[in-house]
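User: tokens in, sequence out, please.
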């Protein structure tokens, strides 16, 4: 079978979100299915490390698809030409978009419907494209996959899809996210926080990530605890970050907030493993990989109730109302004051079983 894959989010110096999902999923699928040929379709020059095995052929077809007009061109003209040339049996697209101009069966991965629930957090031109085309993509796809039961339910209730058409393919945290040694923790804290303990947030600086409420919660925590605890924000500046960075300029505890910017994967593993706790109060996620990365690293988690993060963590995290910074602060104080609670949360994680897409059996190419 010839399986074509949309790999335009496999970016060497900018691998996050969709890119991580594609990397972790297809790195496993490719190696576990040597009998199949994979065509990786890039929209710009690629890093050779993304060619995971000898059964992968990389194809570049531009221009880089960075806005709605180019999305239309790439998916409806460029991709179908590649599918015809390589006689693809199926096209897999993991970014919520598919081609409306091909007869090749398609497997579409939709991570979440955040554009509907929080429309103000996306560019108007992009929002219009999503609203207009997502129903068409869902209808066009032979098989749909999503990353959590939460997102599956959302897709079915919003678009009236039949349940058997939507498959759950959980995201994965990389195997390198594991507990680190006491020595490594000491070195990381000396590097980033002058040796102080720290709460960690991992992800982009974006309104949906709810970092303004995190700042308010951290301020309340600092006032009540009188501690040298720091807050480390590890991630790039994304869309609409200006209001956050402007607020940070006059923030009372500015010296206790460290913004790392985008950091390498190897550095993120250490930064995660050395954290006192992960605080991830996002307003909406289809999955929430940073939460799983922290849990694999034996780092306790504070995250949002009522979204996919609650499904991931089960009862092994402290859940908060993301709209209530007082609640976030209370949970930060609770985990800070109760070392036994911290240990219990870590122990609960060890008892949980997480499904990681490895064999490809959940993406049923043979049934398309």
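Assistant: Sequence out:
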């Amino acid at each position: 079978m010839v399986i074509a894959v949309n790999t335009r989010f496999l970016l060497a110096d900018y691998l996050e979100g969709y890119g991580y999902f594609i990397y972790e999923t297809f790195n496993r699928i490719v190696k576990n299915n040597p009998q199949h040929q994979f065509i990786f379709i890039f929209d710009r020059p690629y890093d050779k490390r993304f060619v995971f095995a000898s059964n992968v052929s990389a194809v570049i077809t531009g221009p880089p698809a960075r806005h709605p007009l180019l999305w239309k061109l790439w998916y409806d003209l460029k991709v179908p030409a590649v599918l015809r040339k390589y006689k693809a049996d199926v096209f897999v697209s993991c970014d919520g978009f598919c081609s409306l101009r091909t007869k090749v069966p398609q497997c579409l991965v939709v991570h979440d419907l955040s554009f509907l629930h929080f429309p103000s957090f996306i560019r108007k031109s992009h929002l219009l494209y999503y609203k207009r085309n997502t129903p068409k993509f869902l209808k066009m796809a032979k098989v749909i996959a999503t990353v959590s039961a939460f997102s599956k339910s959302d897709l079915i209730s919003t678009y009236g899809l039949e349940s058997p058409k939507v498959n759950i393919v959980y995201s994965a945290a990389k195997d390198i996210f594991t507990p680190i040694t006491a020595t490594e923790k000491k070195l990381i804290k000396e590097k980033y926080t002058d040796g102080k303990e720290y709460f960690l947030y991992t992800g982009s600086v974006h309104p949906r990530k709810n970092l303004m409420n995190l700042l308010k919660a951290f301020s309340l925590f600092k006032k009540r605890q009188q501690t040298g605890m720091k807050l480390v924000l590890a991630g790039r500046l994304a869309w609409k970050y200006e209001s956050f960075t402007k607020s940070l300029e006059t923030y009372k505890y500015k010296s206790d907030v460290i913004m790392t910017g985008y950091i390498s994967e190897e550095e993120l593993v250490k930064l995660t493993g050395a954290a006192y706790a992960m605080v991830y109060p996002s307003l909406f996620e289809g999955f929430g990989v940073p939460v799983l990365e922290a849990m694999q690293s034996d780092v306790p988690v504070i995250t949002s109730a009522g979204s996919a993060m609650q499904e991931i963590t089960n009862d092994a995290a402290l859940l908060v109302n993301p709209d209530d910074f007082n609640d976030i602060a209370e949970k930060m104080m609770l985990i800070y004051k109760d070392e036994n609670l911290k240990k219990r949360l870590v122990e609960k994680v060890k008892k949980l079983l997480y499904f990681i897409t490895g064999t490809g059996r959940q993406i049923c190419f043979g049934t398309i």
